[in-house]
Amino acid sequence: METAPQPRVLATPEAVDAIDELVEARGPVLFFQSAGCCEGSIPMCFGVGEFVISSHDVLLGTPGGCPFYIDVRQCDALPDLRLLLDVSEGEPEGFSLPAGRGRHFVTRDLV
User: Fold this and answer.
1) Taking a C-beta distance cutoff of 8 angstroms, is the pair 14, 86 a contact?
2) Which residues contact residue 68 at a Cβ distance below 8 angstroms, ignoring those fewer than 6 apart?
């Protein structure tokens, strides 16, 4: 019997609550783990359809029922990558949706 692969991204209860509120207010969302540059290495949250997922993106898991992707090159460079999606105080950077009033999503390394 084959076991299902372990998700490579998990979420704190606070992140799940924020996702639930966001989905209720806006509809389905997805996450994309940024590799840096302008927005830094943060998870970007978008409404489904607002960000194009390509064949070069890897699904790490579905925290809070929402798909969470990363670029295949970043995933290949970090083969042991495991992330914890959480929320933190402060407005989101870049084009990411907020995690509630005055909060943004963050990821923490589980390895």
Assistant:
1) yes
2) 9, 30, 31, 32, 33, 43, 59, 60, 61, 62, 83, 85
Is the domain spanning 9-109 CATH 1.25.40? The answer is: no
Summarize pLDDT for 64-104 with one digit per residue, the tens: 999 999 988 888 777 788 899 999 999 887 889 999 999 99
Residue 86, SS3 per DSSP: strand
**Span 32-47, pLDDT tens digits:** 997 755 445 689 999 9
Residue 40 is inside which H or E element, if any? none
Give the C-alpha separation, 82 to 53, whole Å. 20
